[in-house]
Amino acid sequence: MTKLYIADQTCSQAVQIIANEIGLNPELVHYNVFDKSTSNGDSFVDVNPLGYVPVLALENTDQDTITETIVIISYLADQHPEAALIPARGTLERVKIDQFLTITATEIAQKHIPLMRKLLSEEGTQWTRAKLVSAYSTLDARLADGRTYLTGDHFSVADAYVWATMWHERSGAEIGHLENLMAWKARVDARPSVQKALKDEAEIVAFHRAQATA
Ligand SMILES: N[C@@H](CCC(=O)N[C@@H](CS)C(=O)NCC(=O)O)C(=O)O
Questions:
Q1: CATH dotted code for 3-83+193-213
Q2: Strand order in the sheet with 3-6
Q3: What residues line ligand 1, using a CB cutoff of 6 Å?
Q4: Which end of the chain, N or C, is more open, meaning fewer C-beta atoms within 10 Å of its C-beta?
Q5: Pocket test for ligand 1, best of 6, 52, 161 (most atoms within 8 A of CB)
Q6: What residue ranges do the domains of the chain occupy?
Q7: 53 C-alpha to center of ligand 1: Å?
């Protein structure tokens, strides 16, 4: 069975959501980013020598492993065009969503991480928080025309990725005043694919914890 390596409350939720949207049921493996253990005993350094989730381990002849959130969600969405989660490759619409996903990875997800891990000086903290507020403000402005989701009226990979990296509370970026974005977040919270991702994640994390204390 295809395996999806995830970590608690991280960007791997984006992959879970997209898998749920298309009805895939990969085996979830939890990676504890602190003690480096996995819920099924796999050596994570062998799975991804770069040491991060998400990783999708395919069951193909070459036993390929795919890393990078953008690449995995795009791959899954491309495999299931009927779910309309991403525009077709080669179109300008696809270029725009790729641009959006890249901004999410570089200007949102990776900006949060040193803040959440408290790795920055006071000056670095202020600068990085301001960058985040600025990035989220562009999303709020995008939603101001009343659209339901970030790229229009259909849920897409863009919504899954941004939702999975809404770590503003943990990194102290104050965006509660961005009303369009907060309303969008509530809509995404309510999607069955998101609720299932949270439930499945909680179950595998609890299983892994119980194993560690047994
Ligand atoms: N370039 C990767 C980065 C993924 C990443 O930062 N993963 C974090 C969770 S969101 C992680 O696993 N961190 C564990 C660590 O660095 O020890 C991607 O875009 O998917």
A1: 3.40.30.10
A2: 27-30, 3-6, 55-57, 65-67
A3: 7, 10-11, 33, 51-53, 68-69, 105
A4: C
A5: 52
A6: 3-83+193-213, 92-191
A7: 5
pLDDT in tens, 97-154: 999 999 999 999 999 999 999 999 999 999 999 999 999 999 999 999 999 999 999 9
Q: Does domain 92-191 bear CATH number 1.20.1050.10?
A: yes
Q: How far is the CA of 107 from the centre of ligand 1 (A)?
A: 14
Which residue is closest in CA terms to ligand 1's atom 1?
68
Closest Cα to atom 15 of ligand 1: 52
Nearest to 55 by CA among 101, 116, 98, 2: 2
Contacts with 114 (C-beta within 8 Å, 6 or more apart), sequence order = 120, 124, 128
Residue 212 is predicted with a pLDDT of 86
Tell me: pLDDT of 12 over 90: yes
> Is residue 213 over pLDDT 90?
no
Continuous segment of H or E residues that includes residue 179: helix 179-189
